[in-house]
């Protein structure tokens, strides 16, 4: 719940215990803007603040499903300059993400990893209940492939953000969000599944 601003203080606490962490970030947006409406802390800026504070191991950051609107003419430059791997949504269309997650597991290694999942990473056909929907996103099956592909990583925390139930009278966004959170709990270290 909440908007993506909540990930910033969570990662401050996580890094205090574990040092800089890897990040599997699913989103339509990079959330690395510098300012919005004159504010430095905003749901479009958390990962820039995390970089500035040394909370992330930038060589172990992957952003998946990125697409859509931006306030910057070159919206991926900052991320790429930091060493993030940016996987655009169009590079995910019509394919399984199992091979991608194999690469991500190698990139993350056995060091601490945090998962941050913005529901707008999914196409609004499946999850319209969010404040910043962007067309041509990931499918629920791909979301499961990403989360299940994190099994075996040294996951030290996770979140699912930007669900706004009032924008979806069907309740499907909340249902999808709850199921994705359940899946994240299932891939935490030490959790036994069938």
TrEMBL record:
One of its GO terms (molecular function) is metal ion binding. Keywords: Hydrolase, Metal-binding. InterPro entries: Ureohydrolase (IPR006035), Ureohydrolase_dom_sf (IPR023696), Ureohydrolase_Mn_BS (IPR020855). It holds the Pfam family Arginase. PROSITE patterns: ARGINASE_1, ARGINASE_2. GO terms for biological process: putrescine biosynthetic process from arginine, via agmatine. Belongs to the arginase family. Agmatinase subfamily. This is Agmatinase, mitochondrial. The gene is AGMAT.
């Amino acid at each position: 719940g909440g908007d993506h601003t909540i990930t910033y203080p969570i990662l401050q606490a996580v890094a205090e215990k574990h040092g800089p962490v890897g990040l599997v970030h699913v989103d339509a947006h990079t959330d690395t803007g510098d300012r919005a409406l004159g504010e430095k802390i905003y749901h479009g800026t958390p990962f820039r603040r995390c970089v500035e504070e040394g909370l992330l191991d930038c060589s172990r950051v992957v952003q998946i499903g990125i697409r859509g609107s931006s306030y910057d003419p070159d919206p991926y430059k900052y991320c790429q300059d930091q060493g993030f791997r940016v996987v655009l949504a169009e590079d995910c269309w019509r394919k399984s993400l199992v091979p991608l997650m194999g690469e991500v597991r190698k990139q993350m290694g056995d060091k601490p990893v945090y998962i941050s999942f913005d529901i707008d990473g999914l196409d609004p056909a499946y999850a319209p209940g969010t404040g910043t929907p962007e067309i041509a996103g990931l499918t629920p099956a791909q979301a499961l492939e990403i989360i299940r592909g994190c099994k075996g990583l040294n996951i030290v925390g996770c979140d699912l953000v930007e669900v706004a139930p009032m924008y979806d009278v069907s309740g499907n966004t909340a249902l999808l969000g709850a199921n994705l959170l359940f899946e994240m709990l299932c891939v935490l270290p030490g959790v036994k599944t069938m």
